[in-house]
Design goal:
43% strand, mainly beta, single chain, eight-stranded antiparallel barrel
């Protein structure tokens, strides 16, 4: 079954979840710290489903590792890859605070432990750290109205041998954008940060294979034509299809999906738990004015609108 058929036949939305204004694909405009310094260069992507988040953080494009297999990467490029960040986690919206738990992460320690105080106006969502350590400016990315799909990955395994290739992760589709996380099949031992572990095991091919058996990818496209990877923790995935959009079957309980696909000539199964399957969400850039604010905006528009533009 294709994902579009799945949406048509079995649409569903959870009773609880984040507010509608938080849904979709946001890119970070800036992060400002308590010491007065600001970063506007790091590529940071936030995909939000009803009850879970996908996050990707990469250096500037010129400092990213070019598209190539892991085996072709130099020791310096491996160190760059080891500092990439990508994760998926369940989230909870409570008392105007968003917090995350039960994560699947490329990094071995939590680099962002604070919950988020969030407020959105227009396409701008501002995140405050409760400690006052930083504030982030996020911008909703443009998309025509379209589907919101949130599927949390339980595991991916070989259909014949039963070997598990990935545990944990998820897929979020929001209109013209999509993101995928595939967790490691085996957790790495210890709590030492990943870049430090890499220095200890850089000459161990088996360790490298386990450590980098993880993916967080962001893609653009459509449910009709597919999604192409534009950013990824795995350099060789750039320009490839994010995920096949067919091969899905809903299990009898109505809560799980199984996708059958072929990777490297071998049949595999991915088993997902459904967060949401919504055929049409607006992903609107605006949040609206109160009547008094609308009158003020119109009255003062000669000066307010002189240099207006849409920033995403």
């Amino acid at each position: 079954m294709h994902l579009t058929e799945l949406l048509t036949r079995y649409p569903q939305q959870p009773v609880q979840g984040v507010p509608d204004w938080m849904l979709g694909f946001f890119k970070r405009q800036s992060i400002s710290f308590a010491d007065g310094l600001t970063d506007v260069q790091t590529n940071v992507c936030w995909f939000q489903s009803r009850n879970f988040t996908i996050d990707l953080r990469l250096p500037q494009a010129k400092y990213q590792v070019p598209a190539k297999p892991l085996s072709a990467c130099s020791s310096e490029e491996l160190q760059v890859l080891a500092n990439y960040e990508g994760w998926e986690a369940l989230c909870r919206w409570e008392d105007e605070l968003l917090s995350w738990h039960t994560d699947t992460s490329f990094q071995l320690h939590n680099r962002w432990p604070e919950p988020a105080v969030l407020k959105r106006i227009g396409n701008c969502m501002i995140e405050f750290a409760p400690s006052g350590a930083y504030v982030e400016d996020w911008r909703l990315q443009c998309s025509r109205p379209g589907a919101l799909i949130g599927l949390r990955l339980l595991e991916e395994r070989d259909r014949d041998s039963g070997e598990v290739h990935h545990r944990g992760g998820g897929l979020i589709v929001c209109g013209e954008h999509a993101a995928l996380v595939l967790g490691r099949s085996q957790a790495l031992e210890g709590e030492t940060p990943l870049p430090d572990q890499l220095r200890q095991h850089a000459d161990d091919p088996q360790w490298l294979s386990r450590a980098f058996n993880f993916e967080t990818s962001v893609a653009q496209g459509s449910l009709q034509d597919g999604f192409t990877v534009t950013l990824s923790t795995r350099a060789e995935r750039l320009g490839q299809a994010l995920i096949p959009l067919h091969g899905f079957e809903r299990e009898a309980d109505g809560k799980h999906l199984v996708q059958t696909l072929v990777i490297g000539g071998k049949a595999r199964e991915r088993r997902f738990v459904i967060d949401t399957l919504e055929p049409q969400v607006s992903f609107a850039q605006g949040t609206g004015f109160t009547p008094d604010a609308a009158q003020w905006y119109e009255r003062e528009s000669p000066t307010l609108s002189r240099y207006l533009q849409s920033l995403v």
